[in-house]
Amino acid sequence: MARLFLMVVSMLAQSPAAAQDRPMTATTQPIVIAHRGASGERPEHTSLSYELAIDQGADFIEPDLVPTKDGVLVARHENNIADTTDVAAHPEFAARKTTKTIDGQQVTGWFTEDFTLAELKTLRAKERLPQLRPGNQRYDGQAQILTLAEVIAIAKQGTRRTGRTIGIYPETKHPSYFASIGLPLEARLVAGLEQAGWNRADAPVFIQSFEVKNLQQLKGMTPVRLIQLMAPAGTPADGGPSYASMSTAQGLSAIAAYAHGIGPELTMVVSASTRYSTLIADAHAAGLKIHPWTFRAENYFLPPPYRSQGTPAAHGNLDAMIQYFIGLGVDGFFTDYPALGVSARSSAKAARPS
C-alpha cells in the first residue's frame, strides 16, 4: 500500500493542474485538526503542544484517551508510556515494567492502567520521535500528563483567548481491551463531556475510534459527532468487517448508521486508476464527512515528490500536499503541524475558482 501511494503521488505531482480539476465543493472550509497538538514542534499531548496548536490557528486539538488505575482518562498516544514519559528514570516504578498483549500484539513497557493519576502526575513528558524531531527534546521534562478535563479546559481557555471556537477530537484507544480489564472508556468520556457542557449535538467535539462496537455504544449514549477511523489494511480489534470492506459504498452506508464521518489513513484517499479519490465521493454520497490522517512535514513521512534535499528529519513541501488533498474535497485533516495546515488551507481557498 505504501509503495502504491508513492507511485500515485509521484504521478499527481507531475500534473500540477490536477487539483484544479476537482475544486473544493464544501460550503465551509476544511477543519484543521491538531494531531496530538502541535506535535511536530512540542512533545505530544502536552499543554505546550495543545496551546501552541491553538495559537497557530487549529480548529480542534486531539487527545488520545487511556485510563489510569483509578479510572481517570488521560491524554497519551498509547497506554504504554515508556517512549513518551520519563517513567524509566523513576526507580520507584521499575518493578511495574511488564509485558502485555493488547489488540493481539505483545507490548513491553509501563502502562497507564497500572498507575494512579497521582502517580502519573509525578512523571514528565518527553519527545516520542527524538531522531526526527531533535529540537523538541529541549522541552523534555517540562510538562505533566494531562487529564481529559484539563484538555477541555485548555480548549475553552483557547476559545476565550483567541475568539475562535476551539474544539476537541478525542480518540478512544483500545476500548475493547480496556473494557476487558474493567476500565471501559465510554461512560467516563461521556461523563467528562457532560461536566464540560459539551454532551450535545452542536458541541465542538468529535469522538473517533478504530473500533466499531464502542462507537455504536456511544451512539446510544451521546449526541456528539462520531468518526470511524480506518486503516489501509487489517480489521478492527473488536472484530467485524475489514477496513477494506468498510471503505466500500456498502460499508460506508453501514457506518453512516452510527457515525458522522470517517477518518481514513491518507493513502486510502488516493486511487491509482483515476488519480482521484473514490473514497471521498463515496463517503459524501453516504452522507459522511471525511478527515484523513496524518499530514507530517518530515521527509521521512512524505512521498518523494514532496521531499526536500537533506536528511529524513528535514522538512519537505507539506503545504503542497495538503493543498492537493483539500482540492480533492476532504472536509478536514489531521496534521502534526497545524500552522502549515492553516497556511495551506488559506492558500487553497485563495486558489479556489470564484
UniProtKB/TrEMBL annotation:
Enzyme class: hydrolase
Reactions catalysed, as given in the entry: a sn-glycero-3-phosphodiester + H2O = an alcohol + sn-glycerol 3-phosphate + H(+)
Occurrences of domain GP-PDE (ranges): 30-345
Alphabetic keyword roster: Glycerol metabolism, Hydrolase, Signal
Any one GO MF annotation of this record: glycerophosphodiester phosphodiesterase activity
Listed Pfam families: GDPD (PF03009)
Coiled coil: none
One GO BP annotation of this record: lipid metabolic process
GO cellular component: periplasmic space
SUPFAM superfamilies: PLC-like phosphodiesterases (SSF51695)
Alphabetical list of PROSITE patterns matching this protein: GP_PDE
Range of residues in the leader sequence: 1-19
Record-stated family: Belongs to the glycerophosphoryl diester phosphodiesterase family.
Record-given protein name: glycerophosphodiester phosphodiesterase
